[in-house]
Amino acid sequence: MDIDFMVKYAPFFAEAAWTTLYIGAVGIFFSFLVGLAVSVIRYKKIPFLLPLSTAYVELSRNTPLLVQLFFLYFGLPKAGIHIPGEACAAIGLSFLGGSYMAEALRSGIESVSVSQYESGAALGLTDHQILRFVLLPQALSVSLPPLCANVLFLIKETSVFSVCAVPDLMYAAKDLIGLYYKTDETLCLLVAAYLIILLPISAGASFLERRLRHGL
């Protein structure tokens, strides 16, 4: 094991980790927004949008992110649409994550008792106000565990971003292995980088779940 090599190229992995985190954060943020919109559409059963949202969830959940990225990065240019690699990665992650977030949020909304809705209506709240102030806050607390699991899942899915020429962690690992053939050292750096990213997020998610379970 070449420790000097690992020390020398650790900053290279640190830079790649920031790229992974940045694109991952953007993708997770927009996937949550997409998931929230889709969950509301499916819960309220909006006539025209319901079949579209259902088709989106089925398409997103049943196609790999790698295939989606190939379509965005290599397929769309055939139609004259050119999207930078980092934008393709963020769009692909948002598209994939949106369906998982939607299912988690929808299950949370449906877990709220009907009496909560009826109580809000009895107080004179509109449907929008009931959804915003009564249903969603309770649904978010119920959906927190699967939402956190989805965040971890999506960050791990960033490992395929290298197909879009995004200089993420996997791209850095492939680059170093191809140049120096230091496979063991490079993979150790790769594993360490993902652990440094994922372990704090996992610990933070567990802390939030415990706080919610005992009441904030």
Helix-and-strand structural type: mainly alpha
Radius of gyration: 21 Å
Distance between the amino and carboxyl termini: 48 Å
Characterize the largest beta sheet: strand count, sense, and whether it forms a barrel: none
Principal-axes shape call = flat
According to DSSP, the number of beta strands is 0
Order of helices and strands: HHHHHHHH
User: Strand content of the residues, in percent?
Assistant: under 5%
The residue-averaged pLDDT reads 88
The number of helical runs is 8
Task: Tell me roughly what share of residues is in helical segments.
Answer: over 70%
Description of the molecule:
With 216 residues, this protein is an all-alpha fold. The protein contains eight helices and no strands. It is flat, with a radius of gyration of 21 Å. 32% of the residues are buried. The model has no long low-confidence stretch (mean pLDDT 88).
